[in-house]
């Protein structure tokens, strides 16, 4: 049975572990060890995660299949949105599934949860930025009716990358 648990400060160790593991598994092969380390040291420390968890405009959810931790979801509303601010939208900043649970529909269930939350918050759309070379994710979002609306540059460590901004409207 799938369930979602809204993260609080009591979950910081679990969140940190899964954040680092899924980030390294997703981007480790395509980046230098230095860039990976710089990102982890700036964004996935206890201090950084505490700041994010205590921001009422950032929402974290751990996803479980029975008792097994499968992945996590991070949504941003209002001023917590990262590169673009759209008051009628929710940003999906992170949607990560552990490697051993990939390709089993869990990512879809996380996306469905994000849509449900956005609608509960009475928002008209969801948006996200995805690395231009993450073809699997891009295909997944296209299948779910996201449209590319622009590109952005983001920095990982010391290296600039291009991200595709994709958006899904509800009405």
UniProtKB/TrEMBL annotation:
Record carries keyword Phosphoprotein: no
PROSITE patterns from the UniProt entry: GNAT
Q: Does the keyword Glycoprotein belong to this entry?
A: no
All copies of domain N-acetyltransferase, residue ranges: 2-171
Name of a matching Pfam family = Acetyltransf_1
Keyword annotations: Acyltransferase, Transferase
Query: InterPro entries annotated for this entry?
Result: Acyl_CoA_acyltransferase (IPR016181), GNAT_dom (IPR000182), N-term/lysine_N-AcTrnsfr (IPR051556)
Name of the molecule in the record: GNAT family N-acetyltransferase
Q: Which species does the entry assign this protein to?
A: Metabacillus fastidiosus
